[in-house]
Design a protein that fits this description.
Elements: E1 2-5, H1 10-15, E2 21-30, H2 33-44, E3 57-59, H3 87-92, E4 97-100, H4 106-114, E5 118-121, H5 127-131, E6 134-141, E7 150-164, H6 171-180
Parallel strand pairs: 1-2, 2-3, 3-4, 4-5
Antiparallel strand pairs: 2-7, 5-7, 6-7
């Protein structure tokens, strides 16, 4: 396992290769479809964003409410493809990493390469386990979106796998090729 800290920079991203297992510590942000739409809308209007994108990671997740004495509820990854329409603009604005599940479209992969960014996958169905790596959570904006509001999470050893590295190598394509060669 490779331990990394946020915010991400080019030196960290250069060293990460598709298939690497990582433990992420530091601040990450949650955001899903509606929050992405609002962020891109602000960018298109040249307005300030409610969070700093530069060097940061967005986790495609909507946490369930926290049980008593817990920081957060279950917080598994959401299908990333739903954010593909918004992702290139956020990467152009400085976003360096994303965590979700599932493959990304060609435009997102090209934008990952162009912006020297990275895409991680988290294990779907492991939301309760993932929540144990979250040490604190704070609402940042869009409270009206409920569980889809943007939250800042302080994470320690958040488990993820590099799915698409900054060179465009894609774990999904590699997996298909390995399967076909059997």
């Amino acid at each position: 396992m490779i331990k990394i800290k946020t915010p991400l920079n080019d030196n960290i991203i250069d060293k990460l290769k598709v298939g690497d297992e990582v433990l992420i510590s530091g601040k990450i942000y949650t955001a899903r479809d509606m929050a992405h739409s609002r962020l891109v809308n602000l960018l298109e209007k040249n307005e300030n964003l409610p969070l700093e994108l530069k060097g940061n990671i967005i986790y495609y997740a909507g946490p369930t409410p926290a049980k008593p004495e817990k920081v957060i509820g279950s917080i598994g990854p959401t299908t990333s493809g739903r954010m593909d329409i918004f992702t290139p603009k956020l990467l152009d604005a400085g976003l360096k990493g994303m965590i979700g599940k599932g493959n990304r479209n060609r435009q997102v992969i090209e934008s990952i390469i162009k912006n020297k960014a990275i895409y991680f996958i988290a294990i779907g169905g492991a939301g309760a386990l993932i929540s144990k790596s979250i040490k604190s959570s704070k609402l940042i904006c869009y409270e009206d979106l409920g569980t889809e509001a943007i939250m800042e999470l302080e994470v320690e050893d958040f488990p993820a796998i590099v799915a698409i590295d900054s060179y465009g190598n894609n774990i999904y394509d590699i997996g298909i090729e390995k399967y076909r060669s059997l």
